[in-house]
Amino acid sequence: TQGCSGLWVVLVDTVCSCTRDSIFLPFVRLTNSGTDTTVCAGATATLGAPPLANATYSWLTASPYLSSTASPNPAYRYTGTFSNSFVFVENLVLQTTRLQGCTSLDTIRVETRKVEATLAPTDVLCWGEANGSIAATVQGAAVPVHYVWSTGPGPVDSLLNLPAGTYALTV
Question: CA 27, CA 29: separation in Å to the nearest integer?
Answer without folding.
Answer: 7
